Amino acid sequence: MMHVKPPLWSSLSARLLVLTVFFVMLAEVLIFVPSVAQFRVAALEDRLGAALLVLTAVQSHPDGMVDMDLQRRLLTQAGTLGMSAWGPERRRTTLGPDMPPVVDAAYDISDRPPGQLIRHALAAMVRTEARVIAVRGHPPQEPQTWVEVVVEEAPLIEAMRGYGWRILVLSLIISLITAALVYLSLHILLVRPLRRLSASMQGFAEAPEDAGRILRPSRRSDEVGRAERELAALQSRLREALGQQARLAAVGTAVAKVSHDLKGVLTTAVLESDRLEQTAAADPEVKHVTEGIARALDRAIILTTATLRFAKEGPPSPRLRPVALRPVVEDAGRVIMGQECAVSVEVSPDLLVRADPELLLRALENLLRNAAEAGARDVAVEAAVRGDSVVLRVADTGPGLPPRALENLFVPFSGSARAGGTGLGLPIARDLVQAQGGTLTLERSGPEGAVFVLCLPAG
Prior knowledge:
By secondary structure, the protein is α+β, with helices and mostly antiparallel strands. Among the domains are: 8-180, no CATH class; 321-457, 2-Layer Sandwich (Heat Shock Protein 90), CATH 3.30.565. The chain is 56% helix and 17% strand. Strands 2-1-5-4-3 form a five-stranded mixed β-sheet. Helix 1 (12-59) packs antiparallel against helix 4 (153-206), helix 4 (153-206) runs parallel beside helix 5 and helix 8 runs antiparallel to helix 10. The longest helix has 57 residues, at 223-279. It is rod-shaped. 21% of the residues are buried.
């Protein structure tokens, strides 16, 4: 089977790369906006500090006065059109032209909430018209002094845009480097192992019987390593189950063939039994024995016929009807006649269950046969009505079930409690009970014996 490689943009690697770049850029944007706002505040504070230095230089002149031309040149060097300064120990002093320019906006950077600073910075970044603004605040060198400057906003905006572009380019470079590193890390730690798991599952699906297709887990101790080990264990169990199913299919085919031949042999035996019964009709003892043989042969023919039907059509459909429970239990008890095991039946003769008598008989026979073969001396069967159900308890005095049998109680070929057992008795019994709408469970098991509980619909 050919596997089409998905487009690059739909792969996990490409999505991880795009998401990593996006999230890193988002983080850089969250850093960029406050940075631009802080750059604007710092530039304005530098203008305030430079203006205060101009004022100090003017006041240091011998007569404290300089001509307007020198003032204009000093203010131009400080990047301002005019200024004023005042404070607790400083009288208000003004430098600049006698006719100050018209101010378009005024800002007080001494009181600067972050949200307001960011709004002012973003508005300045997108502004196209030339403006003259007045800025008031405390210069860094004299926090107690108030300084107000009048400046042209265009040079400040130009510097902000240059700073913004530098931050943007640097952010992009950092984003790409970070994205590449994160992408490589995720690709090595996650994407490649996932591809390996996917390839292993695809290869195993193509040939599950091939042991070489089972994933060999790495030595990683993280979640990926645990996933690899779980997948390898699952593949091993599935391969074993498929092998067992194949063996069971082969056994079923062989049983069907044997049952076909056995049906013919049993039919002949029934005919001979009928002739024997007619010949010895005068002897009551012989007649009783031949009747028992005939019943056993009839049941064997029914069983082989059902086996053939199961091989061709699947499990038989139960024919449910009201059935007296006690006679079925007593008939099942005859399966261990001749063995050193006694069966006591405490079931009311009037108690009815809704079941298929043949399937119920086979299920009980399997339970009683297992108890006798396990070494039980006594088996007690009792029944009680609980609501709309009949609960049948089968308690034996055997040694109980070993731990291995308890772990695989209803698993075919795995739950045998004795050496040489097939492990089919309990799985078959449970399947037969479930086919009739009932349940079969183990109530307890220990040195004093085991107790199985059948729950069937009341009749």
